[in-house]
Amino acid sequence: MLRSLLIPLLLSASAFAETATPLLDETFAAPGMPAKWKPGGRPNSFSIVEGALRGVAQPDDAHGPSISVPIEGRDLSVQFRVKFAAPGYFLFLVDGDSQYGGQAHLLRFALDGNFMQLAQDRGSLESKAAQKAEKDAAAKNGAKPPAPTQEQLADPKFYRTESLKREPAKAGDEWHSVKIELRGNEVTAQVDGLPAMSGKGTVLDAKKSSLVFLVGHSGDVRIDDVKVSAIAP
Q1: Is residue 81 situated within a structural domain?
Q2: Cβ atoms within 10 Å, residue 142
Q3: What is the rounded CA–CA span in Å between residue 215 and residue 217?
Q4: Structural domain contains residue 3
Q5: pTM of the model
Q6: What confidence tens digit (pLDDT) does each residue in 49-65 have?
Q7: What is the CA 46 to chain-centroid distance, rounded?
Q8: What residues pair up with 37 in beta bridges, in sequence order?
Q9: What is the pLDDT of residues 139-180, one digit of tens each?
Q10: Which of 23, 87, 150, 188 has the fewest Cβ atoms within 10 Å of its own Cβ atom?
Q11: 98 φ, ψ to 5°?
Q12: Which structural domain range is residue 182 located in?
């Protein structure tokens, strides 16, 4: 009986096994920005406050600021803590080798006050640039870009973000523990003690090059205790 009870527990624990090589362990204990962390977007959007990384998105910033740190690995185990000092939108991305050439976003993990989501970016960088130019031109004329056609969506090089899994979540002003594991094209994410959500992509099994943290929707977000390990095949 005891053996039958232990087996499900062991299988559940293996989803986030600690059999990995450390790549990054950042606690933001020093007062200045860590050397390898590169802020992007509007100046002074990121700072170190009370031993944590703070990111603030301005109300008129439609994209939101981001900050990146380089990583070299393929299969990764990522852990960090995050909290919303003010309601907003938090996005964690993993960048790496695109199967269509160059470096691109591969994985997205989104969290706000109502949901958490896993998604992948698929398509060529040329297509992404063309869509941005079309969107900017439409916005200049006070219009919206046309919706993708069926022919465009059938083209694997047409850049798009595809949802892999979405679940309800309540992210408030307390600290939340996030765990994400990437193994080949499979990804698992867990927030606090909630059941883990999993998804399977088509572009995730690639060499990773950096992690990106983004703040949006006028959010004021804190990030701390970022730990990354490479998982052995």
Answers
A1: yes
A2: 6
A3: 7
A4: no
A5: 0.89
A6: 999 999 999 999 989 99
A7: 17
A8: none
A9: 889 999 889 999 999 999 999 999 999 999 888 889 999 999
A10: 150
A11: -85, 140
A12: 19-122+163-231
